[in-house]
Amino acid sequence: MKKEEVRSRILEIGIIPVIRASSAAEGRFAAEAVARGGIPIVEITMTVPGALQVIADLVRDLPDVLVGAGTVLDAGMARHCLEAGAAFLVSPGLDLETVELATKRKIVMMAGALTPTEVMSAWKAGADFVKIFPCAQVGGPAYIKALKGPFPQVPLVPTGGVSVETAADFLYAGAAALGVGGELLKKDALQARRDEVVVDLARRFVQVVQEARKRT
């Protein structure tokens, strides 16, 4: 899939499930469950044991799901993720070498940032999206709204504190998409392999996003 297609799909879906799991099997389970719930996109963080193999397995076994790599800390790690088949890269903070690599490889890059200075640097470096993390701790939707004032052209993706209850507020504030972790992928549900919990939450997130976008 070409870069613009990946970027468009992220915008269209509007939800990026951030998968942090205690094992490779748990990570695959989580990805399959959110896909069944109507979210055909996942971010496999590098903190998942065997994350690169999980990415490769999902790319092979779930061709309709957009598989990206998260918690990418440097360019070396980014290269390994791309070799595994990742369609996009996400970093928790701003690493300019990783952004440069993604730009050269024509891969969608979601660079982490928190301050206005970091947002400016990420955007100037060529990031396709700027992940605002951790968002809840610095004001949540109100902070996104404040950033959209000087940066209306920057697609912001708040991550941290995005729940079924707050998702709409983030979108009303101007978020381009939402990074969702533990509020969608409940730790106990993953450990107990209760896919119905994840599937139900995924469907609720999809519904909230669709309804919110109709009003914006």
Distance from N terminus to C terminus (CA atoms, Å) equals: 29 Å
Number of strands: 8
Counted by DSSP, the helix tally is: 10
CA radius of gyration is 16 Å
The run of helices and strands is HEHEHEHEHEHEHEHEHH
Based on secondary structure, the structural category is alpha/beta
Q: Give the strand order, joined by hyphens, for the main sheet.
A: 3-2-1-8
Q: Residue-averaged pLDDT, rounded?
A: 97
Low-confidence stretches are none
Strand percentage: 15-25%
Question: For the report, how would you describe the main beta sheet?
Answer: 4 strands, parallel
Shape: globular
Helix content bin: 40-55%
Oligomer: single chain
Describe the structure.
This protein is an alpha/beta fold. It contains ten helices and eight strands. It has helices at residues 3-13, 24-36, 51-61, 75-84, 96-105, 116-125, 141-148, 167-172, 187-191, 195-214; strands spanning 15-19, 41-45, 66-70, 88-90, 108-113, 129-132, 156-158, 178-180. The strands form two sheets. It has a four-stranded parallel beta sheet with strand order 3-2-1-8, sandwiched between helices. It has a four-stranded parallel beta sheet with strand order 4-5-6-7. The radius of gyration is 16 Å and the shape is globular. The mean pLDDT is 97.
